[in-house]
Each structure stands twice: as C-alpha cells, then as structure tokens.
Design goal:
Nitrilase/N-carbamoyl-D-aminoacid amidohydrolase, 6 helices, 6-stranded mixed β-sheet
C-alpha cells in the first residue's frame, strides 16, 4: 500500500523581500532521498502582504519552484501572490519534478485584512493525484469553511494541505479547526503556517501540525520555531480507519458553495 514522505517548512519570511526569502528556503530544502513533497506556507516569498507590487515577483518565485522541484526530484508546493493579467491572486502552486504544475486560487479571502480588496478569489476546488494519493489544496482562511473543504464523491481526498499565515492570537482556533476538518473528513490534514512577526507587526506562532484521520496530532512544530518537520503517511492506515468507522457517506452534492 502506498506511502507518502512529506516534509513541511515553518518559515519566518522577510517582509516583502522575495529574493532573500527564496535564498533562505533554498538552504532549507530537504535532501531528495528523504522527501516526496516539500510544503511551504502561504505567500512564502513575501509574507501576507497587500502591496500589489509583491505579486509582480510571482513569476520569479514560480521559476524558482520549478527549478528546485526538477533539481531535487520532489514536489515543491506553497502559495504565492501572483499576477494574472491585471489582477492578483493568492495562488497555491503544486510543482512536480517532471514539470507538471497544478494550482488552486484561494477561494475564501480574508476580508478582515482587506485581502478581498487586493486579490481575486478562485471558484474551484482543486485536488491532485500523486503517487497513489488524492491531495486537496487549501489556503489559510479556507479552514474556517467546513462545507468548502468537505470531502465529496468528486473531491475525495486522502490528504488536505492547508498553507497559512494564521496569527498567534487565534492559534487556538487554528489547532481546533485543523482537528475538526480531519475528523469530519476522515482524512490526514497538514496545516503549514508561518512563524515570527510580519511587516505590519502581526505575530505568528506557527503551530504547524499534521493531524491523522481521527483528529490525532501526528507531529507538530513547537511555537515560534523555524525549520522542517517530516512524516511518512500510510494509505493503508487511512483506509482501515474509514472502513472501521464508516461515518462519511459523501452525502453533500457537488455544487459550489
């Protein structure tokens, strides 16, 4: 039965300095023999900035992701402020070593920080198939929208990736919602958050963690830490949990809500 080796990086990005952030991340990239997928936080190249200029560096950061994925032989995933024509999006890129790129545009924009005034929302759920796994892609505030993340027949993921810039003052909600999404969807869920203080003075404790399909914490970053954590996920275990506790029926339809 298929296993998946994931590594995720809890980062303290330098505010609105993409080149410096990419240089630091290059040094943090794990060895190729230890990893199938390396996951970075939301807006890892710039921090959670509403400055439209940061989206202009999106192409450069995507080129960096493609080069790293090809040279290291594993998937590189994370979100970037990215320009599409004359509009900006908060785009979660999944970049495979053979060159395939899948992306998800953040659906639920964080209006409290006026993200909706600077970025355009996506309108489609996105799931990738990799090494026998179905993997759903989500960004930060999506975590509060259980119906949007709900597993369904045409969106039947085994692992949900939630990349984030989730502040320390709401860390209890972050950890509680990660557990809730894991339990209700009977799926692995990985929340990859940033650490440190951003250019607006907002503090982030990180608290990145991997949850199992029963809501159990498999491993987590210490608060305010920076660096990589890793785990090997087992699809056989996930299937056995779903068979032993057949709570999920896929009853929600596939309408966009």
């Amino acid at each position: 039965m298929s296993s998946l080796r994931i590594v995720w990086h809890q980062q303290a990005p330098i505010w609105e300095q993409p080149e410096q952030n990419l240089a630091q991340l290059e040094l943090a990239a794990p060895p190729d023999e230890t990893c199938d997928v390396w996951i970075l936080p939301e807006m890892f190249a710039s921090g959670f900035s509403m400055n439209p200029a940061v989206a202009e560096s999106g192409e450069m950061a995507l080129t960096w992701m493609k080069h790293l994925a090809k040279s290291r032989g594993y998937v590189v995933a994370g979100s970037l402020a990215f320009l599409i024509g004359n509009k900006a999006v908060n785009r979660f890129f999944w970049v495979e070593p053979q060159g395939k790129i899948v992306f998800y545009d953040k659906r639920n924009l964080f209006s409290f920080a006026k993200e909706d005034a600077h970025y355009s929302p996506g309108n489609e759920r996105v799931m990738v198939r990799y090494k026998g796994w179905n993997i759903g892609l989500f960004v930060c505030y999506d975590l509060r929208f259980g119906v949007w993340m709900y597993r369904r027949p045409k969106f039947n993921y085994d692992l949900a990736l939630v990349v984030a810039n989730w502040p320390e003052r709401r860390s209890r909600a972050w950890k509680t919602l990660l557990a809730a999404r894991a339990i209700e969807n009977q799926s692995y869920i990985l929340g990859v958050n940033r650490s440190g203080k951003d250019g607006q003075g907002v503090l982030y404790s990180g608290d990145s963690q991997l949850m199992g399909p029963l809501g159990e914490i498999i491993t987590s970053h210490p608060p305010f830490a920076v660096g990589n954590k890793s785990a090997e996920l087992n699809l056989k275990h996930l299937i056995s949990v779903r068979e032993r506790f057949p709570f999920w029926t896929g009853g929600i339809d596939d309408c966009v809500v």
